[in-house]
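To whoever is on call:

I kicked off a structure prediction for a single chain this morning and the downstream step that reads the tokens threw a length-mismatch warning. I double-checked the sequence; it's 393 residues and nothing unusual in it as far as I can see. Pasting both halves so you can look.
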Amino acid sequence: MTKDLKPRTQLVHGGTRRSQFGEVSEAVFLTQGFVYDTAEAAEARFVKAGEDEFIYGRYGNPTMRMFEDRIAGVLGYEDAFACASGMAAVSGALLALLKAGDQVVASRALFGSCLYVLEEILARYGVEITLVDGTDNAAWDAAISDDTDVVFLESISNPTLEVIDLKHVCQVAHAHGALVVVDDAMTTPVFSYARKCGADLCVVSTTKHVDGQGRMLGGIIAASRDLIRGPIEAYMKHTGGAMNPFTAWTHLKALETIDLRVRAQADTALKLAEALNGHPKLNAVRYPTHDAHPQCELARAQASCGGTVLAFDVKGGKQACFAFLNALKVIIISNNFADAKSIATHPATTTHQRLPDDQKATLGITPGLVRLSAGLEDAEDLIEDVLQALEVI
């Protein structure tokens, strides 16, 4: 019913399954297992479960299935698997697809935990890892070969907001028979262009914009049905990384308002970038679709909006940056982003603190870098808060 409807309608109705009671709000099934009428029925289901037949909470659940169907439709993929967290989705997607001797080519600008999965876990088990400058198409061309099995990148990097030419990367990868896995957390499900550009798998931390209110950890892997119900489901159900039903239910309710929330937050993020650009106490301001971003034309070509996060570099390094952060009155200090509350983060000492200083410098994670996630507060209040905090420096 919903596949031909506009995204905002799909976010309200997609994947709905009603019980015999005809409930309006989606039901939450808090059960670890399911009952079979006969031993023969149990045997048959373990051989091949039907579309709405379930075996065990680790394998799937009616509430989880509604969420998977709904978000897969919005992202433009055939199917999805709901995971316990964004990193469960990232690690699950990569580990399900790779084995010893395989090769991954990835963007160098990645979230710290993503780099850990690549350099510490996959490399330990014999997967060859090659990191490139994701903004350099020639670097992708040189690194991807017929030996490459998976290409991994963030569509917009965290925290420096580098923008990848995703269509180019997908074309090069597919010419060599490699699968493309995109971490789409910064782009948001509302503005996602992973499927449109040809990405084979889209991974999203649903902790971010989907929940968007600081409550639940979650993640999703979206791809073709063959990939999801093949290697992805097999890996996830045996290693225990599935989402719990209550999280899936809260996510279903949150999807009903995500379009409204994210568009409002993105508008505020752009207003903040405009207000801060050229400020004498900042070295630079970055928001993907703002003129000050070095890849603004590419960002505009790929998406209608730059997302809900901006970054800026405070003159004076860590000491000045900490003075600024400590002077904020409305915006809170935390290490998450995409929340209803505006959040300021100092990546160099928190989310990316484990990286060596030379690697931080290469990635542009300077001592003065602030990642600012715009919430649902009034934009004028946030602008005033940032400007008064800069005056403290």
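Update from on-call: the warning came from a stale cache, not from the record. Cleared it. Sanity check on the structure: The longest strand covers residues 309-314.
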